[in-house]
């Protein structure tokens, strides 16, 4: 149908779903073959030239990879740039709870992932970074991490559910038609040992975030599905790499997962003498004030446990109260500077950046201007 209307030129597909235009650059969504969703094409009509040009302009401005959905329908592609057959269709029957018209694969999160080629960097280069497993999960813990962020522990019993440090989950809530997208902040080892993942969700008017802050309780049942190309997954045969992690605000979540994963790798190597060899990790983390520096005690505990391997520089931009004596050695008032990052550039170093678009744009551009190879830079944007 799309081809018959000439809408696959330049590998773009456009379809009207319930009155909204959905756009996807079909060859760049990196979904596993056969992972599609049903598309409602009732009332389909090709766009006029001005509307089509605006769609293409918007899609280019949002980068290579984007999430597209509207009230449950998504425009999805395969590597062969073809749409779905009945065999590959997602339906609500795949969820562990009834939810009419609910089609999983992509989420309506306020997140865009800009993946520079090769930023996986270490290990599993041929594996897909998306999984088809939609797993039932139960809330087994909840607490306030900051005045605006709530921390959740989810028990995921399904042994087929796994993730790589830095990835996110699509978050499906019974009775809520919008799907959330939240980065995992725990390490893969916690899931392996206890079948638990941890999320930290900032308060927002986005329906999934509102549900988490206002309605979520112990034993609430949801479903989760892993995705994302922002991850660190070294293998034993890989050369040791240093990491620089640059976080802004709630962008600490995937980077904390990576930091915790490197700590687990250091512990495993110290106890067995084998496994993955990881170099040093330096975390630069900026927030408005110390109360919004999430997981700061967890971060400092890792710094103290591995003083030769892990270091951090915590920045506050709008601090109005006195900084505690415990935090003072690690706190800098003001933004993270270009010089601080430039001092850590080397051919063995990988850079992971997650935060607001202005910060992410600035540091990714500065690293490129400093001749850091693109395959050594990986960043995730929030908007």
TrEMBL record:
GO terms for molecular function: oxidoreductase activity. Keywords: NAD, Oxidoreductase. PANTHER family: OXIDOREDUCTASE NAD-BINDING DOMAIN-CONTAINING PROTEIN 1 (PTHR46505:SF1). The keyword NAD applies. One of its GO terms (cellular component) is mitochondrion. This is Oxidoreductase NAD-binding domain-containing protein 1. The lineage of its organism: Eukaryota, Metazoa, Chordata, Craniata, Vertebrata. It holds the Pfam family NAD_binding_1. InterPro entries: FAD-bd_FR_type (IPR017927), FNR_nucleotide-bd (IPR039261), Oxidoreductase_NAD-binding (IPR052128), OxRdtase_FAD/NAD-bd (IPR001433), Riboflavin_synthase-like_b-brl (IPR017938). The gene is OXNAD1. The keyword Hydrolase does not apply. Residues 132-235 form the FAD-binding FR-type domain.
């Amino acid at each position: 149908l799309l081809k018959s209307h000439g809408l696959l030129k330049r590998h773009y597909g456009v379809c009207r779903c319930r009155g909204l235009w959905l756009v996807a650059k079909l060859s760049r969504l990196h979904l596993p073959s056969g992972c599609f969703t049903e598309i409602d094409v009732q009332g389909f009509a090709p766009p006029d030239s001005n509307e089509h040009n605006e769609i293409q302009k918007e899609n280019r401005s949002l980068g290579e990879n984007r999430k597209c959905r509207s009230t449950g329908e998504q425009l999805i592609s395969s590597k062969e740039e073809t749409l779905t057959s009945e065999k590959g269709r997602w339906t609500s029957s795949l969820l562990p709870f009834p939810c009419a018209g609910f089609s999983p694969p992509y989420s309506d999160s306020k997140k865009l992932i800009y993946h520079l080629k090769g930023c996986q960097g270490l290990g599993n280069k041929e594996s897909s970074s998306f999984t088809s497993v939609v797993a039932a999960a139960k809330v087994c813990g909840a607490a306030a991490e900051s005045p605006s962020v709530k921390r959740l522990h989810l028990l995921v019993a399904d042994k087929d559910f796994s993730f790589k440090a830095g990835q996110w989950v699509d978050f499906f809530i019974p009775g809520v038609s919008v799907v959330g997208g939240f980065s995992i902040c725990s390490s893969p080892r916690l899931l392996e040992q206890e079948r638990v993942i941890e999320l930290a969700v900032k308060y927002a008017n986005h329906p999934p975030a509102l549900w988490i802050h206002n309605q979520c309780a112990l034993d609430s049942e949801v479903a989760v599905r892993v995705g994302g190309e922002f991850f660190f997954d070294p293998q034993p045969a890989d050369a040791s790499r240093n990491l620089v992690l640059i976080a802004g605000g709630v962008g600490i979540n995937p980077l904390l997962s990576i930091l915790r994963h490197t700590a687990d790798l250091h512990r495993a190597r110290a106890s067995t003498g084998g496994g993955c060899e990881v170099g040093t990790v330096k975390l630069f983390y900026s927030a408005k004030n110390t109360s919004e520096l999430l997981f700061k005690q967890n971060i400092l505990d890792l710094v103290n446990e591995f003083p030769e391997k892990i270091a951090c520089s915590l920045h506050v931009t709008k601090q109005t109260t006195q900084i505690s004596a415990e935090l003072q050695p690690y706190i800098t008032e003001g933004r993270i500077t270009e010089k601080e990052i430039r001092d850590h550039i080397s051919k063995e170093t990988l850079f992971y950046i997650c935060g607001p678009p202005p910060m992410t744009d600035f540091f990714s551009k500065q690293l490129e201007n400093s001749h850091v190879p693109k395959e050594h830079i990986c960043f995730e944007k929030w908007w």
